[in-house]
Amino acid sequence: MEYQGILYNLGAMQIKELGEFGVIDLLTRMVVDQRTDAGNGRSFSFELTVDNGDDTAAWSVGSSTINELFTTDTMVEGVHFTRETTPWEDLGWKSFASNISDVASMGGAPTYALATLGLPPETEVSDLENLYKGMLEISNEYGLAIVGGDMVRSPVVFITVALAGAMQGQPMVRTSAQPGDLVAVTGYLGSSGGGLKLMLTGPSEKSEAADFLRDSHRRPRPTVAVGQTLAESGITAAMDVSDGMADDLSKLCRASGVSGKIFANKIPLHPLLCSRFPDDCIDLALGGGEDYVLLFTGQPAKVNHIVTELSGGAAVVGEIGDGEPGRVTVVDAQGNETPASNRGWDHFGRSPE
Predict the structure, then answer these.
(1) What single-letter DSSP state applies at residue 323?
(2) Where do the H-state alpha helices sit in 40-150?
(3) Which of 138, 191, 219, 345 could pair covalently with 243 via S-S, beta carbons 3.0-4.6 A apart?
(4) What is the pLDDT tens value at each position of the chain, 353 positions in all?
């Protein structure tokens, strides 16, 4: 197979050289190209409607118009969080928020979850109780149930959540953006990144801005209702902003075979972020990540109408073109255009500057 040849040629390369998204592309193609058939799902009349490579997988059952969604995510101590910046209760909340946001980006609602914990043996029982308190708070607020999981010994804390969801109709995906579409987001960008920056540089700071930014990082709020509104309004291309606006738009553009532009002066920034980090707020918005607002594209008339109906910082921030797939540029107030690459989170690539 073509893919086996590619895998062979890359055999001597380390994953840090390929980068997280290169690795994901590699493995996505491998599992799709080398899959022999639909597997046991066919016996139960399951039809795969969204395959590997999007925010969630999706399938329907028989003639039903309901799509079931499935996603998973992991948080690892020292990689995604530290105990100094994220208390146990907030860690429980946040471990579920990232998965709920993936379901929201498809237009669905969360239903059931499995949680796998990796814990050092010296972990305090009270810490574990606080972790589950946060998990239960977000689960109850968003209408999902924790129905099982697993627990293993680990040198560091990690949490893996597998989340199921459901929706009526077809999910929004990354592959349907078209040249001429506008790019919009459903809320403010950069506040979570600002919260992390604050905690790393001034953890004990007390102010309205500090409280807001810390809360934005520790307790992000997935936009499930907004995702349902987008899907019901006929939007077909969307994803959540988890790795940074610039990188996430690049992923959507690459999946759709298009390019994109972001207009820096149109990015929605919360006033408290701007007041605390006036010189860094644009970079935090483009590369900070973990905002969990939704990024979507569509024809100008439709997108402009939807944005006027949304609140909380929703804005048109860019446009889709027919250039190199995945290429995204940032246009400043003077009209200067620069590449938007290497701004967001990459588990295996070099850290963004």
Answers:
(1) S
(2) 88-106, 125-142
(3) 345
(4) 233 334 445 556 787 777 766 776 777 777 667 766 767 777 777 888 888 777 898 988 877 889 999 999 999 998 888 888 899 999 999 999 999 999 999 999 999 999 999 999 999 999 999 999 999 999 999 999 999 999 999 999 999 999 999 999 999 999 999 999 999 999 999 999 999 999 988 778 899 999 999 999 999 999 999 999 999 999 999 999 999 999 999 999 999 999 999 999 999 999 999 999 999 999 999 999 999 999 999 999 999 999 999 988 999 999 999 999 999 999 998 999 999 975 544 544 544 33
**Does domain 64-168 correspond to CATH entry 2.40.30.170?**
no
**252 near 296, Cβ under 8 Å?**
no
Distance, in Å, from the CA atom of 345 to the CA atom of 353, rounded to the nearest integer, reads: 11
Per residue in 115-139, is it b (16+ CB within 10 Å) or e — as a string?
Answer: bbbbbeeeeeeebbebbbebbbbbb
CA 210 to chain centre: 24
In the DSSP assignment, the letter for residue 329 is E
H or E segment to which residue 228 belongs: helix 224-232
End-to-end CA distance of the chain: 38
Whole-structure pTM value = 0.86
User: The domain at 182-339 falls in which architecture?
Assistant: Alpha-Beta Complex (3.90)
* All structural domains of the chain with their residue ranges: 64-168, 182-339
- State CA 269 to chain mean position distance: 18
